[in-house]
Amino acid sequence: MQSVEAKGFSIPIVGFGTWALRGRDCARLVEQAIRLGYRHIDTAQMYDNEREVGEGVRASGKRSEVMVTTKVAPTMLAPHDLERSVKASLAHLRLDAIDLLLIHWPNPRVPLAETLGALAKMKQEGYAKQIGVSNFTVALLDEADKVSSEPLVCNQIECHPFLDQDKVVAASRAHGMAVVAYSPIARGNASGDALLERIGKTHGKSAAQVCLRWLTQQGIVVIPRTSKVERLAENLGNVDFDLSDAEMKEIAGLARPGGRIVDWSYSPKWD
Ligand SMILES: NC(=O)c1ccc[n+]([C@@H]2O[C@H](COP(=O)([O-])OP(=O)(O)OC[C@H]3O[C@@H](n4cnc5c(N)ncnc54)[C@H](OP(=O)(O)O)[C@@H]3O)[C@@H](O)[C@H]2O)c1
Hints:
- The chain is an alpha/beta fold.
- It is built from ten helices and ten strands.
- The strands form two sheets. It has an eight-stranded parallel β-sheet.
- Strand 7, helix 5 and strand 8 (152-158) form a beta-alpha-beta unit.
- The radius of gyration is 18 Å and the shape is globular.
- Bound molecules: NADP nicotinamide-adenine-dinucleotide phosphate (NAP).
């Protein structure tokens, strides 16, 4: 599995997203994903599936090879709450430590320096091995970089061809952070897109694989989710072919206003 390096930390370039996966299905899919070669699993306190994710990781028998990310909910960003929340996440996961711990969404009502201070403390005390952020804007990245006492290794953001994220991708990289793309197949919308389908045909790949390759070829980590075992291998199989420069450009041309799927107005409501 190829990786993206950030501040000395290695992030497997294809991970498995678990939002909306629940119960036994979730545990089974996580276990199966790891058996098929995934080495990066993404969950969050808000997904209400940390127990099942931990179960799947343990059942795979490959805990030591797998990087597990979880995220602190935006309602839990005051230092005392954050600490409580991380300890609860770890208890649900039943793992030795959280490999990568992220702030899920910024909360403008809690000073960022306080939140990042608490996040750093979680790392220093061994609850998390690495820390980072999610849904951070260019301005928030600049502020975070100034106030964090520990390196922030990634910014997890919505990223796919239908949305122009060039500025925030460049800013994340300027701060030495890896970019992790969530909703990397645009919640399934890559499938059926005429351009992605056409390019896929020339490579013997599906539209979803082309969509993922467009990201991984730029050194962006992807965390596609599926509830179907047969799609696990398909989504993993996006790094064994190359898109031409012309194809990369054509795909970038799919970006359009309104291409965002996850609603940002969601964030400030968390207070
Ligand atoms: N940090 C954040 O704020 C944030 C926000 C959103 C998501 N995330 C993370 O990112 C992960 C991925 O994002 P996402 O779940 O929003 O969307 P996604 O991975 O872009 O898309 C998932 C959807 O695509 C379908 N799909 C999967 N593989 C496919 C394929 N090969 N061909 C056609 N359709 C396919 C799935 O349906 P089937 O189940 O039927 O296969 C599902 O409906 C999440 O699960 C979560 O871990 C983070």
